[in-house]
Amino acid sequence: MKYLVGATTNGTAVFAVTGETAVNITALDPAIGSDLTQLAAQTARIESLADQIASAPSVPVASITPALPIASPGAIICVGLNYTDHIKEGGYDIPDYPALFMRSKASIMAAGQPIVRPTCSDKLDYEAELMLIVGKGGRHIPEENALDHVFGYTVFNDASVRDYQRKTHQWTPGKNFDNTGAIGPFVMTPDEVPEGAAGLKIESRVGDEILQSSNTANMIWGVRKIMAIVSEYTTLAPGDLIALGTPPGVGHAKKPDPRWLRPGETVEIEIEGIGICASPIIDEAVAAA
Fold first, then answer.
1. Residues 103 and 26 reside in one and the same domain
2. Separation of CA 38 from chain center
3. What is the CATH number of the domain that holds 95?
């Protein structure tokens, strides 16, 4: 199933997408709610709606304004340094345990909404990432069973303010500026992508300028391993979000000069078979006006 959470003139709802059209499944079953939280916790619920979805009226996908797939995630866990060439371009040693950090809810927003470059820095960087949404929760999830705990996959831009990221050994400031983490718009269930979402082309670009181009098969720690590692220290819950790191080509590592995102540009993150997360860049002063 391909899902889109978004708003129309009738409010925010969950849509099932086929091609360029979508069916409002919240209208078919109001208990689903206005985001994917309930479906992530009760994946079997959608099976009972299959016949209704097939015969229900649809609307153009283009008429839906994307919203966050999970409106209020309990945890937003991010993996850093998960592609070898990205580790090298950043000047780090290859780790034997993934770098993990958290994002706040205020730092994320839906695809299509502006990424805000803060007034205190012009060093706004892009990071194309695969993100998973936890379905069945749990603690100490065995690696061999980890994929059973994935509800779906989406696209994430882990936009980072690099000078603030480097101010401290902890990356929290640079990774948590308001409105810098774009998510969506589409969520693909695991049956719609290769196992563990491996082998998918992942790319970032501004217009015709390709900034990053790699493949999710190049992740050091895949979905199974990350689920097992994270659930060693915390209990995962339905609707939790886990971002799986970015490939090489980020702006701060460009030679001879860094390539920062600038107001007026639109950055696109695309993952094969999942979709494009497009975000215009605006200055904080414009956002506050």
1. no
2. 19
3. 3.90.850.10
C-beta separation of 109 from 272 below 8 A: no
- The DSSP code for 175 is H
User: Which tokens in the block code for residue 251?
Assistant: 């702006």
Enter the DSSP assignment of 83: B
Residue from 167, 161, 174 nearest 281 by CA: 161
H/E stretch holding 51 reads helix 50-55
pLDDT at 218 (0 to 100) = 97
Query: What proportions of the chain, in percent to the nearest 5, are helix, strand and coil?
Result: 30, 35, 40
User: Domain range for residue 17?
Assistant: 2-66
Tell me, what's the pLDDT at 44?
82
Q: Which residue has the tokens 């809810």?
A: 105
Q: Do 272 and 130 sit in the same domain of this protein? A: yes
Say yes or no to pLDDT of 287 above 90. Answer: no
- What is the signed CA dihedral for 175, 176, 182, 187, rounded to 10 degrees? 90
CB-based burial label for 67 (10 Å; 0-12, 13-18, 19+):
buried
Model confidence band, residue 124 (pLDDT cutoffs 50, 70, 90): very high
- List pLDDT tens digits, range 27-70: 999 999 999 999 999 988 888 888 899 999 999 999 999 999 99
Residue 102's CB is within 10 A of a number of other CB atoms, namely 13
Cα 120 to its chain centre, rounded Å, is 25
Query: Is the distance from CB of 153 to CB of 132 less than 8 angstroms?
Result: yes
pLDDT tens readout for residues 160-170: 999 999 999 99
Cα 223 to Cα 117, 198, 273, 285: the distances in Å are 31, 8, 17, 39
